[in-house]
Amino acid sequence: MDRVRRGVTAAAALITVSGLLAACAASADSGKPELIWYINPDSGGAAKVAANCSTDDYTITTQVLPQDANEQRIQLARRLAARDSGIDIMSIDPPFTAEFSNAGFLAPIPQELQDKLEEQSFQGATDAATWNDQLVVAPFWSNTQVLWYRKSFAQKAGIDMSQPVTWDQIIGAAAKNGGKVAVQANKYEGYVVWINALISGAGGELATDTEKGLDLKLEIDSPAGEKAAAVIEKLAHSSAAPADLSVAQEGQAAGTFGGTQGAFMVNWTYIFNSYEGSNPGFNKDIGYARYPQTVEGEDSRPPYGGIGLGVSAYSQHVDDSMKAIECLTSPENQEVNAEITGNMPASQAGYEANDDALQKTYPADLLQLFQDSLDAAAPRTVTPYWSDISGGIQSRWHPPASVNSDTPAKSQSFIDDVLHGRSLL
Predict the structure, then answer these.
(1) What range does the record give for the signal peptide (predicted)?
(2) Which residues pair with 307 in a beta bridge?
(3) What is the pLDDT of residues 278-304, one digit of tens each?
(4) CATH number of the domain encompassing residue 253
(5) Are residue 298 and residue 313 in the same domain, yes or no?
């Protein structure tokens, strides 16, 4: 924990004068308290539920964090390490929950609210929001990836998408029939999401014994890690690889899938409604299935993503902020956010709130696939040292064309050196 505190405290020195002035202005007493909620970029869902949850006692306003998850972490960590009171509520990506809690940045959630949130939330959402046996953030939305495919291409390729498919099968089908397999393989967090899902799908984990802190056990150099590397190596050296593979994020993958060579894509829930505005009727050619298997016959472990809402330990309005996150994460507001953004609720009740509004937007079998995939999803390792692990993986597994059977061992050795101060990212 001391190491985490030292790192974020050093980062705090980089805060600009303008940022500090903004924080002072935000906390100025102007009558009714204004709760400042730092959100990840979306399509207006957070602003809508903030308006829904503003009361006669306080107003909730939003400030948008950077697009990149790592940059979101850095901006929040710098300000929290400086005990900046200009943040009341924050949207936190699951991999960084343990780090923020371990550093003392999060105000404890009252036990009564913890119990309520645990009762309403999917188990995966609860697990991602928990550190040291305490729920430290409130699950807001839970995302997962599924395998999207073009029905016309699958028919041409003669691949039966009603049955589980493997990465080898879809890469082979795409290569033989002039198609592309769209993934996220830029040097960023989304690439680690893919690697983690591949390793988990082969029965492995990135790390275990995380309660031991720096003495956690890295598991990347393993048969599961080798199987994951083999999938990436095969795609990277196949004609099914998009030309922009090494720089592809969610948007680039969606562009490939929507193009003339679009065949298969792994991507998040919000992708389904991203085409109709520019390409009416395209959704009729979109099929969907469970995330591909790493190993034939072994159930896949789809990626888990989402957002939890944390209250800053340095907020001047902690009690009001706790009331606010209870409202913001209610099933009704989870559904409102999902309908606007495509980021699905963190609770079963959220899928059924507001007169089943989601059922009017998404096919029933797709909503069921989302929920089934969440039940089977593989979260990234919950540890305060996730940023070091993720950064080490990105460093040694990128670009995808460089991945081979030696990559898992090399990356594990490098990450171990980073964790123990023998190497720098």
Answers:
(1) 1-28
(2) 141
(3) 888 899 999 999 999 999 999 999 999
(4) 3.40.190.10
(5) no
